[in-house]
Amino acid sequence: MKWNLIKTKVLAALAACLVVGVGGILVLMHYSFARNSQALAVESVTGAQKLFTILEAREISKMTAVSDTLAVNQEVRDAFAARDRSRLIELTAPLYTELKSEGITNWMFHTPEPDMAVFLRLHNVAKFGDHLKRPMDEAVVRTHAMVAGNQMAKAGFAVRILRPFYDSRGGLSGYVEFGEEIGHFIQEMKSQTGDDYALLLSKKFVDRQSWAESNALWKRRDNWNDSPNLVLADKTTATDNIIQFQQELATLPGEGKVLECFHDGDSVFVRGIFPIRDTAGNTVGAMFVVRDISSYYLAMRHTQNVLVLVTVVALTLGIFLVLTLLNRLVFRRLEHIIMVATRVVGGDYETEIRVDSDDEVGQFEKLFEQFRCVFVDLMAHVPELQEK
């Protein structure tokens, strides 16, 4: 193949167009996938945050209803007012078993101010008499009205309600508290969305000894040393590999953020996270969201392959059509002109150029034929001119 030929240059240009076309599709598909992946990640974070808020409100409503029922139970009111711990356990333990099956894992009675100590923990009856001194404790003492919201304890994070509890004469006996560990939420969130979740807590708000005791009580592995700043409270995955976040939780924006898109074997995931704040507004925890977008990725790859195939076929047919037209309309006619000119130079003055078109090449053929006729006529008079 001679590179100085117009045909070769045209073929090279068309081949370059094919390469550019396929490359453009690949770049466009990659850009589209990146944008759609980002949109899916944002959707997973915002959707999870909205769902969490809905579940939180639902559980607060459930615990409020339970506390309303408890507040009119005369026997429980009298036992708490009399500080009869054994009688209070006898009355409430069966109900606690039922509530625990519904997700309410924390139930406590607190003495009134100024002591405000834990009188009874239904979930750990052997431990009492300690002072929690949490923001919600200060709020309920200040307002003597129910306080609800997320609250970190020494060894866990739960959505809680804390409300005054009165005796039969209307006097303040103390306070009653119900709580549901947020880790319970993530299982329901997974069942509704299909995404995976993990609850991360800042070690700044977790007591090391209490964390170890809580894990021993619930027969869980003590994972305190797995991360320098955070501790994993609960997760919906069998492995911790896809849960990776080492930043400060306080830096997270309120609406959460998308972290990254990553591959794990043949699967493709997007990661995101949103903060969880306590009743005082401190960012004490965060919900880690992982969405599997493998099906979308495979669909995108299939679409990409189809587009590339269609583009290659279309451009190949286009190149074939263009080359066919150029060969018929230009190159064969130019080759014929070259052949006639070669014969004329060799002394064959009989071969003519047939003009079948009035296009640009046809005009050139017509001019060349006129030139050939003049040249042949001139060569016919050469002997006569030589004799003179």
Task: Characterise this structure.
The protein has 388 residues and is of the alpha+beta class. Among the domains are: 6-22 and 300-387, no CATH class; 73-181, Beta-Lactamase. Helix content is 52%, strand content 20%. The chain is built from nine helices and ten strands. It has a five-stranded antiparallel β-sheet with strand order 2-1-5-4-3, with helices on both faces. Strands 7-6-10-9-8 form a five-stranded antiparallel β-sheet, with helices on one face. Strand 1 (106-110) and strand 2 (118-121) form a beta hairpin. Helix 1 (6-71) runs antiparallel to helix 7 and helix 7 runs parallel beside helix 8 (360-380). The longest helix has 66 residues, at 6-71. The chain is rod-shaped and about 150 Å long. The mean pLDDT is 85.
Radius of gyration, in Å, reads 42 Å
> Could you give the order of the helices and strands?
HHHEEHEEEHEHEEEEHHH
* Individual helix count: 9
Please bin the fraction of helical residues. 40-55%
Report low-confidence residues grouped into runs of 5 or more: none
Mean pLDDT score: 85
CATH homologous superfamily name of the domain at 73-181? PAS domain
β-strand percent reads: 15-25%
